[in-house]
Design brief:
The complex is a heterodimer of chains A (695) and B (387). With 695 residues, chain A is of the alpha+beta class. Chain A is 29% helix and 24% strand. In chain B, a hairpin with a 2-residue loop joins strand 6 and strand 7. The chains are: A alpha+beta (695), B alpha+beta (387). Bound molecules: zinc ion.
């Protein structure tokens, strides 16, 4: 809101410099963002919070200043002219259904109209042009300028019609009929609907209530008779209409925040006075349709001074509280009861009164204190483990990504979500936004993979070919109709390129599936969980034969592998990309595994390394399982040594080397004992899988 | 006797002849292999001329057979010859060894300026770094960290926060909705409600989390960002506790000399409400950076904007605070009684404060990030700048 310093001085005596005025207003919550010189004036740019529409006028700002400086407002004209007399009109005021009929009183609780005949439309005097110009308003003609001027002075928007352009010279305030059209002052034809309030003549809409007047019924140079509308509309309805029409005006801005319903007559009088002065003519009686007087709003506060102390810790004497409140127009009406001013829609409870007192007492006077000690703080249950997990990945060269939670619908069904998450076969399995601000991105992500792949693409575009990313974040799945969607925290990685060393320009070696899997293993270990089984699997987004699932206690908690060709082609990835996604929430729901100590053996181990040619379908896990199941009493471990394929071997086989470790905790094993157990393991491997040791 | 002396003379002569290539050994320009070959050659020469079968050894054996009166003189002559030969051999050997050692060192010299071998370390996202720092501070101040749903009902996102239907904050087009009619939470204040329902009061929590607003991405706007919400409800809590708490954690994050400023504001879920600012961590409230500070800050990445283009006494406008000396951080206030009531808390007995702020804005300001969209692009060139 732009406020003219000169104008302000007309409304209240100011002894402060403009800078001091700005600081004083800022201190009480009317944040002055800047002071801009304009000719002989200074314009204060005030950033108002949405609860203070009463300060969208010079009067409102002057009132705040009055509370600060203790000075009264100067008497303004506007209650002069016909005003004095009309203010005395007993409630309800003159009803003149032949001039104004309000068919929708719930949307228009009060409507005033005054006819002024014999005006001469012309340019405004220079002082009026200048004043509007200083506040960024363009001068149009004397009558239109006056309506703007009074709005800026008193905060009440108003509209002047050319009476002779109104069919039957009367006004009907009603909701629009579906499809009814009006060309507004900006010469745009707009279609109204039944929720919108229209100011109509006997036939058609002549203004969109509270938003903008009609073009055809507007004031022109030829106008001689004016109907001045000053009204109060239901705030929510104006907001809705303004949104629907995509039309926000100075008027709608004020109406939707709330104007002062008891200020209409004064505003109308003020405008009338100025019109008579600047455009001539003769004013008729005001028509005031106000069928149901707005009930007075009262606020209870038995002891405002102690309430201020209780909520803010400030010591403000009762007298000073009363002074602040009454200067703001919050009158004490009885024991422990205050009246909320009609221009303040935000004063409803004692806490509101406390804020009024506190902001004028000054927030800077509130002490800094710490609340009394309470107890030990605590992280979220899984935070410590998540920090370790993050740490393990960072150590492995992963950068942490955070991608948007909404993704493009084109990813639907391309990626497999973590198991038991999406409800297959139900109605809708995804969570979808009504609309988005990013083209196409209306799907709440069921998987984090597309986000990471997008990031890989971006990095490749910037010549970063060796990238390891991880993200921890929520994914979303639809639940039943009317139920809140399921949210699940996932942990996802994507890697491509080579193993990079710090400060070395070339990667040491290309990354492969085992780098991705290793990262998963390291992360799970860091998170304090163990006992995972990894097995081959078919996963929608992974290449067949290079995909696995992660299993814990029989439940699949994640997948890993190489991104399939089709998706890779879509992203134009020319190098292999490996991804893994795990259901972190499920994983961390289990308590972490406690460390178990095994006494150190006093006896030496005997090691046997052995190689086999294995078909590609036979996994190390199976070989290991078979070896362990061979019934060897002293076999302690079966571990992986090496796998070799290619040169010198047939396509369908690999050479797998494993290590068998034999040990007894009671004695040193003899060669013969080891040989016997070793032999039985070999024969078991031969029987089960047809494996022969390579020489 | 002369036989014997002749023998010594012969041995000496034979050695001198064999030794001649080593006599004035010049290794200049020799390679390591050449020197090593020479050393081997020298070793053989030594065996030949001083070993058991050498002429010198023969001469030693003769000492016993020489007439007793000549024995002493002969023995001395043998010893002299032996010493002469050994000295020459040792000298040559030492020279060769010295050369070989030096050559070997040279051959195995390493370039210690080559970067050490260490796998590249990754980086946490700046939002995670900041969140963890702030969580640590609040946990040490006795707060529990909380989070909750990101997709919420209107009740938790609005009604319970004293934003009834028809309220401007609710009607604004800021909130994302699912087709099922649920809201993506537009502020972490939703966690206040859920946590109070779950834990009851008294309560002290900090809730970091994602929030969503329908803002089209640009330099300063993103449709998803992170907020941190704080809530403290107990008997006798006042705005002084709010100010004290906010000041304390900002001091712990930015240093003991940090001061805060509270300005009246409006939020539906607090009454009274305040926005809070803190003194700029670069200029410490002055709004200007001197040349010296500027040198430091521009090393950190152009923290300042030059106001005057010439003149030797430059004072530059401080960038994080835009020259105001203050950094606007977040909103706060005393929890609105309607919010307490909707969590079953009696506002006549309990009072509380709440505050909240956005992490992206804070990180952008702390790290001088010009375009907030970088936060969610996951460009490694961006991510690797934070540790
Ligand atoms: Zn600064």
């Amino acid at each position: 809101m732009n406020i003219s310093y000169n104008w302000l001085k007309e409304l209240i005596e100011i002894e402060l410099s403009p800078e001091e005025t700005a600081a004083a207003l800022t201190r009480v919550g009317l944040a002055v963002e800047g002071i801009h010189p304009h000719k002989d004036d200074l314009i204060l740019d005030i950033d108002l919070t949405s609860n203070r529409p009463d300060c969208l006028s010079h009067l409102g700002v002057a009132r705040e200043l009055g509370v600060i400086t203790g000075r009264p407002l100067k008497a303004t004209s506007g209650s002069a002219a016909a005003g004095d007399e009309l203010d005395a009109v007993p409630f309800p005021s003159v009803l003149a259904p032949e001039v104004v009929r309000v068919d929708a009183p719930e949307l228009c609780p009060r409507f005033t109209a005054r006819v002024i005949r014999g005006v001469k439309i012309g340019p405004s005097p220079q002082w009026l042009v200048d004043r509007l110009d200083a506040l960024g308003e363009r001068s149009i003609n004397n009558v239109a300028d006056i309506t703007n001027y009074v709005m800026l002075e008193l905060g009440q928007p108003m509209h002047a019609f050319d009476l002779d352009k109104l069919a039957e010279k009367r006004i009907v305030v009603r909701t629009a009929r579906a499809g009814e059209k009006i060309t507004t002052l900006d010469e745009v034809e707009r279609e109204l609907d039944e929720t919108m309030l229209a100011i109509c003549d006997a036939e058609r809409p002549v203004a969109v209530a509270g938003v903008m007047g009609g073009f055809e019924s507007g004031i022109t140079d030829a106008t001689t008779n004016v109907l001045l509308e000053v009204a109060y509309f239901k705030r929510e309805n104006i907001r809705q209409t303004s949104r629907k029409l995509g039309l926000a005006t100075e008027a709608s801005y004020r109406f939707e925040r709330g104007v002062d319903i008891e200020n209409l007559i004064r505003a109308s009088d003020r405008a009338t006075e100025l019109i008579l002065e600047l455009a001539g003519g003769e004013a008729a009686d005001i028509v005031d349709v106000y069928p149901e007087r707005q009930p007075e709003r009262t606020v209870q506060s038995a002891d405002i001074s102690s309430a201020v102390k209780r909520l803010t810790g400030l010591d403000v004497a009762a007298d000073e509280c009363e002074r602040v409140l009454s200067s703001l127009g919050i009158e004490r009406t009885g024991e422990g009861e205050y009246k909320s001013p009609t221009w303040r829609h935000d004063i409803a409870i004692e806490e509101d009164l406390v804020e009024e007192v506190a902001r004028h007492a000054g927030y800077e006077n509130i002490k800094d204190e710490l609340p009394p000690a309470f107890g030990a703080g605590e992280y979220q249950a899984t935070e410590v483990r998540k920090r370790r997990l993050r740490g393990a990945l960072v150590e492995q060269g992963f950068d942490e990504a955070i991608a948007y939670s909404f993704i493009d619908v084109r990813h639907d069904d391309t990626f497999a979500a973590v198991p038991e998450f999406l409800r297959e076969g139900g109605e809708e399995k995804f969570v979808t936004l009504k609309d988005s601000v990013i083209e196409g991105a209306v799907r709440m992500r069921p998987t984090l993979i597309p986000g990471l792949l997008g990031a890989l693409r971006l990095n490749l575009n910037h010549q970063r070919r060796d990238v390891k990313l991880f993200e921890i974040g929520k994914s979303f799945a639809a639940a039943g109709i009317g139920e809140l969607p399921t949210e699940r925290e996932l942990f996802t990685i994507a890697v491509t390129g080579g193993e990079v060393h710090e400060d070395r320009a070339m990667p040491a070696r290309p990354l492969d599936l085992y780098d991705a899997k290793g990262a998963v293993e390291a992360a799970l270990e860091a998170a304090g969980t163990a006992g995972y089984e990894y097995r081959p699997a078919e996963v929608a987004h992974l290449r067949a034969g290079q995909a696995g699932e992660v299993v814990k206690d029989g439940r699949v908690v994640g997948t890993f592998g190489r991104l399939n060709e089709e998706i890779a082609a879509n992203y134009k990835f020319k190098q292999p990309v490996y991804v893994a996604e795990l259901d972190l929430q499920t994983i961390l729901a289990e308590p972490s595994e406690p460390a178990v100590y095994t006494p150190l053996s006093r006896f030496p181990s005997v090691i046997r390394d052995i190689s086999f040619l294995v078909p590609r379908s036979l996994t190390f896990a199976e070989v290991r399982r078979t070896a362990l199941a061979a019934g060897s009493a002293n076999l302690r471990a079966v571990s992986f040594v090496d796998i070799f394929e290619g040169k010198g071997l047939a396509d369908e086989v690999r050479s797998l080397t494993i290590r068998l470790e034999f040990r007894s905790d009671e004695r040193t094993l003899t060669e013969a004992e080891v040989e016997a157990e070793y032999g039985s393991i070999l024969s078991r491997l031969k029987d089960e899988h047809g494996l022969e040791p390579r020489s | 006797m002369s036989d014997a002396n002749q023998h010594i003379e012969a041995a000496r002569t034979a050695f001198a002849e064999a030794f001649s290539p080593f006599d004035s050994l010049d290794l200049n320009g020799s390679g390591l292999a050449e020197a090593e070959a020479k050393l081997r050659e020298l070793g053989e020469l030594k065996v030949r001329h001083t070993g058991k079968k050498s002429a010198l050894a023969e001469a030693k054996k003769m000492i016993g057979r020489v007439a007793p009166e000549e024995r002493s003189a002969f023995g001395q002559a043998v010893q002299a010859a032996e010493k002469e030969i050994t000295d020459l051999l040792e000298k040559a050997e030492a020279e060769l060894n010295e050369f070989i050692t030096a050559a070997r060192i040279e051959r195995e010299r390493l370039d210690v300026t080559i970067p050490g071998r260490r796998p590249r370390t990754g980086h946490l996202h700046p939002i995670t770094i900041l969140r963890q720092q702030i969580e640590d501070i609040f946990v040490s101040m006795g707060y529990a960290i909380e989070d909750d749903r990101e997709i919420e009902t209107d009740y938790y996102n609005f009604d319970a926060l004293n934003i009834p239907e028809g309220h401007p904050a609710r009607e604004s087009q800021d909130t994302f909705y699912t087709t099922g009619g649920f809201a993506l939470r537009s502020q972490t204040s939703t966690v206040q409600i859920r946590a109070m329902e779950r834990r009851g009061v008294p309560i002290r929590i900090i809730a970091p989390g994602k929030v969503f607003r329908r803002d089209t991405p640009d330099m300063t706007h993103v449709p998803m960002f992170h907020q941190i919400e704080g809530l403290c409800v107990d008997k006798g809590i006042t705005m002084a506790h709010l100010k004290g708490t906010v000041t304390e954690w900002l001091k712990r994050l930015f240093g003991e000399d940090t001061v805060t400023r509270f300005r009246p504001s409006y939020f539906p879920f607090t009454e009274p409400s305040a926005e809070f600012d803190f003194s700029c961590f670069v200029c410490h409230g002055s709004g200007r950076v001197s040349g010296e500070q500027r040198a430091v800050s521009s090393e950190e990445g152009e923290n300042s904007e030059r106001l005057t283009a010439h003149g030797s006494q430059l004072t530059d406008r401080c960038r994080p605070c835009k020259g105001s000396g203050w950094i606007e951080l977040g909103g706060s206030g005393m929890v609105h009684p309607n919010v307490l009531r909707s969590c079953g808390v009696d506002p006549a007995v309990y009072s509380g404060f709440a505050f909240g702020f956005g992490l992206e804005r804070m990180a952008a300001m702390m790290f001088n990030i010009d375009d907030i969209r970088h936060m969610f692009e996951n460009d490694v060139r961006f991510l690797e700048q934070f540790t």
